[in-house]
Structure of Cobyrinate a,c-diamide synthase:
Amino acid sequence: MVRGAVISALRSGEGKTLVTLGLLRLFSRKGVLVQPFKVGPDYIDPKWHKLASGRASYNLELFSMGEKRLKALFYSVATSSEIALVEGVMGLFDGKFSTFRVAKILKLPVIIVLDTFGLAETIAPLVKGAAERLKRASLPFVLFLNRVSSDKHLLRLERALRRYPLLGYLKREEALKLSSRHLGLYLPEDIERAKELLDYLSEILDQTVNLEIFEEFKLSMPPKGQRPFFLPEIPYAKIALAMDRAFNFYYQHLLDELSQKASILTFSPLEDESLPSEAEAIYIGGGYPELYAERLSANQKMLRALKEWAEAGLPLYAECGGLIYLSRALHWQGKSYNMANIFPFLIERGNLTLGYRKVIPQDRLPLFETKGPFFAHEFHYTKVTEPSSKIKTIFLVKSLEGEKFNEGFLYKKSLSTYLHLLSFAET
C-alpha cells in the first residue's frame, strides 16, 4: 500500500521545500522507497528532491497535462514506491492550477507548513480558514510548525492549535537556511556539503516528527497503467542532449519519453570540443549559461561545431539558456561574451518574464518535426536586443492573460526560444 501526502503552506517562504527535503532524506535513510514530486513547473526543487531521496522527481503540471495525464503520470510513478511526497507551489490555494486542486485530483492528504516566527496564539485563526476548506473537500491534513523559537514557544503553539493534528516541528536555526539567487534556490551541486545539510536536517526531524501519522495517509491507487504521452513521435534515432553545469534544466517526464523514442547522447558545451559524432539532432535546454559565460565563450571549438551544424541545415532545438547560447553575444554584469552566433541578436539583463504559454507553431519544429500545438512556460531575467526583422519567427503564443505575441526564432533547421516545453497537446 502506497502512502503519501502533499506538502504545502499558506504562502511562499514558509519552509515547505526544507520540510520536503528533510522528510525525503529521513525516509530514504530509513530504507523506505520514497518518491518525490513537484507541483507546477520547476527545475531546481526536483534536483534537491533527487539528492535527498535518491530518486528522480516528477513535475505534476496541471496546466499542460490536464487531470487525466497528471493522474496517469502520478499513479504510474508512485506505484513503485512506498511513500509519495509531493511538494506544492506557492500558497496552498494560490492560482488556477493550485496545489489544492492537485491534492483534490489525487485525493492526497495535506501537510501545511507554518512559519511560526513572531507568532503564537494568532496562528490559530490563520489556520482556521484553510482547515475548513480542506474539511469541505474531504482532504485530511496535519500541521508542521517551522522556525519555532523555543520549547516555551512550542508549548504555546501546541495549545493554540490543539484542535488540529500536528506532524512535527523544526526550531529556528541559521544552519537550516537554503540560499537563493535570481532563478530560485542554488542548485545542490553549487552548495558545499549539500548532502551533509540534508543528513543533519533528517536527524533533527527524526526527533521531532511523528512518522506514524503517515500510516494513516494510505492512497487509493488504481492498477499501474501505461505512462501518458507528452511528446510526438521523433524521426531521429540519436539525439545529442546538452548536459553540464550550464545546461541541465529538463523535465523528467520528457527525458523519460525522449529516451524511449531515441538514444540520448549527452555532451557538455563547457567541456567538450565537438558534438557527438553519431548525433542526428541536438537539444539544448535551459540552465545558467550566464554564470558560465566566460567558459562557454572560450570554448571556440564547440561554438564552431554548433555553427557548422546549423549552417548544414541539421535539426537543433534550444530553449531559454539554449537561446542565450545560440545568440551573437551575451551582455552580463558589464561584460560581453561571444556565443555561437547562429542567431544575430544580443542578449542582456532584463526584467523578470514568467507565465504559462499556449503555442501554435506555424512551421514544423526542428527535432520534433511537427506543427502540433504545445504548452510551455517562461521564466527568465534576460531579453533579446537588436533583433533583426529578417529572423523568422514560427510561434503564435498566447498567455493565460490573453496576450498574444510571436516567438520561436528559426534559422534553417535551428530553433531558439525562451519557452520551456512542458507537453504537447493531446491528439
User: Anything to note?
Assistant: Residues 6 and 86 are 4 Å apart (CA to CA). The longest strand covers residues 346-361.
